């Protein structure tokens, strides 16, 4: 290989960003961090720049940029600091970039991810919210530019590994009956329903198997994460919502399965460590060392499965309904969820209210077609405004 692959890591200071940089550092002959972005954790961003010496660093505003630029100079680095969404789009679409890790959380990651797609970059997609919001438009842009789109979400990466290379011909054509999307059930899988009123953000963020950012941790507790993943799977694999079944598997060892018409069920297993799907996507179609310990099946000893309980996890029902409704529904679901989760993390609402708010917001707006990006942003803005109205109506 002549020159290492140039990788932009959007959301470098987050959980996925750090795992990505860990893998990159294991293979300096193959990969080089080209640009790193941070948002609030700027001391961490500086440390990452010192470690990985990227060409660019991206921060949210002028003040942060001045501080970071001075610190970089003092550390003897020539890394150039760029600003805001424009800076993110620039480093995502830069002509010298080969691959972009889309690991900003939430709708904030959408424009830079699309900027990378439009320039035909290899996309390592962690930012599921971007695909949930824009679905058909995102996939059209991928086809138009010839981008290679590789899923980072562990379940989707598992499904990708269990599907044949020509799955784009259609799931029916390659003999797939259904996709089995596994879910751990999160920290509240067995909590008595009456106690859910009183659970705290700390409890919601204490995931039994995975260490992740706060927003996705709450989504995992409510299973909205699985709902977003259901929508994500429909777009990535051209599946109908009824072809995707959610299976609770508390050990998080099987990361998802594909059920074929001949009765074969293929699964991908591994320790719950995001460096596996990250390495798989970075090196695809090759395999590289990820630093993840080998799976010890004797230590795992057993694998359990159960059906999800919709009373316990109403967000899963809401997400499935949005997947079936299509149009603006997934973007509205996602936006209402982002605002509601932030309110829960700020202790302005109780945990069960996350689902109540989303249901209320979705019931107030008719689903419309979204055939251009402006319509997606309009649906997103409408849902955010309706969620804020709910919060002020209820005195939060
Ligand atoms: P984190 O909260 O740990 O990291 C989020 C990253 O995005 C940080 O770098 C953060 O910067 C940055 N960021 C936050 N808000 C903004 C904004 N408004 N503009 C620009 N940058 C912003 O999240 P995770 O790494 O856990 O998750 C990232 C994405 O990956 C999510 O979409 C999540 O659903 C998905 N994912 C995560 C998995 C995991 O195991 N963690 C598994 C599967 C998917 P800073 O920290 O400096 O504020
Ligand atoms: Mg996942």
UniProtKB/TrEMBL annotation:
Gene3D superfamilies: 1.10.1740.10, NAD(P)-binding Rossmann-like Domain
EC main group: oxidoreductase
One Gene Ontology term of the molecular function aspect: NADPH binding
InterPro entries: DXP_reductoisomerase, DXP_reductoisomerase_C, DXP_reductoisomerase_N, DXPR_C, DXPR_C_sf, NAD(P)-bd_dom_sf
Needed co-factor(s): Mg(2+); Mn(2+)
Amino acids binding 1-deoxy-D-xylulose 5-phosphate: 128, 154-155, 184, 207, 220, 225-226, 229
GO BP of this protein: isopentenyl diphosphate biosynthetic process, methylerythritol 4-phosphate pathway involved in terpenoid biosynthetic process
Chemical reaction(s) catalysed: 2-C-methyl-D-erythritol 4-phosphate + NADP(+) = 1-deoxy-D-xylulose 5-phosphate + NADPH + H(+)
Binding of Mn(2+), residues: 153, 155, 229
Domain (1-deoxy-D-xylulose 5-phosphate reductoisomerase N-terminal) ranges: 7-135
Binding site for NADPH: 13-16, 127, 129, 213
Pathway(s): Isoprenoid biosynthesis; isopentenyl diphosphate biosynthesis via DXP pathway; isopentenyl diphosphate from 1-deoxy-D-xylulose 5-phosphate: step 1/6
Protein family per UniProt: Belongs to the DXR family.
Alphabetized HAMAP family for the sequence: DXP_reductoisom (MF_00183)
Task of the protein: Catalyzes the NADPH-dependent rearrangement and reduction of 1-deoxy-D-xylulose-5-phosphate (DXP) to 2-C-methyl-D-erythritol 4-phosphate (MEP).
Name recorded for this polypeptide: 1-deoxy-D-xylulose 5-phosphate reductoisomerase
Organism, scientific name: Pseudomonas vanderleydeniana
Organism phylogeny: Bacteria, Pseudomonadati, Pseudomonadota, Gammaproteobacteria, Pseudomonadales
């Amino acid at each position: 290989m002549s020159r290492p692959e140039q990788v932009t890591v959007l959301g470098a200071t987050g959980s996925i960003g750090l795992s990505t940089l860990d893998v990159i550092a294991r293979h300096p002959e193959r990969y080089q961090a080209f640009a790193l972005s941070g948002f609030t954790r700027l001391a961490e961003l500086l440390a990452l720049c010192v470690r990985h010496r990227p060409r660019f660093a991206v921060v949210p505003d002028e003040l942060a940029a001045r501080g970071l630029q001075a610190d970089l100079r003092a550390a003897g680095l020539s890394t150039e600091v760029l600003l805001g969404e424009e800076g993110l789009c620039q480093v995502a679409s830069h002509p010298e970039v080969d691959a972009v890790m889309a690991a900003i959380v939430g709708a904030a990651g959408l424009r830079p991810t699309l900027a990378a797609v439009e320039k035909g970059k290899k996309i390592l997609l962690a930012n599921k919210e971007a695909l949930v919001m824009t679905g058909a438009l995102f996939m059209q842009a991928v086809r138009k530019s010839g981008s290679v789109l590789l899923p980072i979400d562990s379940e989707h990466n598992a499904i990708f590994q269990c599907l044949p290379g020509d799955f784009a011909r259609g799931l029916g054509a390659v003999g797939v009956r259904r996709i089995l999307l596994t879910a751990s059930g999160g920290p509240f899988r067995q909590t008595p329903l009456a106690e859910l009123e009183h659970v705290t953000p700390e409890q919601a963020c204490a995931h039994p198997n995975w260490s992740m950012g706060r927003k996705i941790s709450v989504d995992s507790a409510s299973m909205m994460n699985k709902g977003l993943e259901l929508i994500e799977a429909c777009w990535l694999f051209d599946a109908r919502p009824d072809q995707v079944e959610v299976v609770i598997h508390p050990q998080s060892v099987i990361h998802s399965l594909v059920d074929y018409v001949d009765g074969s069920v293929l699964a991908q297993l591994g320790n719950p460590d995001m460096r596996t799907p990250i390495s798989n996507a970075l090196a695809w179609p090759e395999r590289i060392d990820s630093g993840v310990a080998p799976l010890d099946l004797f230590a795992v000893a057993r694998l359990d499965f159960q059906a999800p309980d919709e009373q316990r996890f109403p967000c899963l029902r809401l997400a499935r309904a949005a997947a079936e409704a299509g149009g603006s529904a997934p973007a509205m679901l996602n936006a209402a969820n982002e605002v509601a989760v932030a309110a829960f993390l700020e202790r302005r609402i109780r945990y069960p209210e996350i689902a109540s708010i989303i249901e209320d917001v979705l019931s107030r707006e008719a689903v419309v077609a979204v055939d251009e990006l402006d319509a997606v942003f309009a649906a997103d803005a409408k849902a955010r405004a309706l969620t804020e109205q709910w919060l002020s109506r209820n005195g939060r």
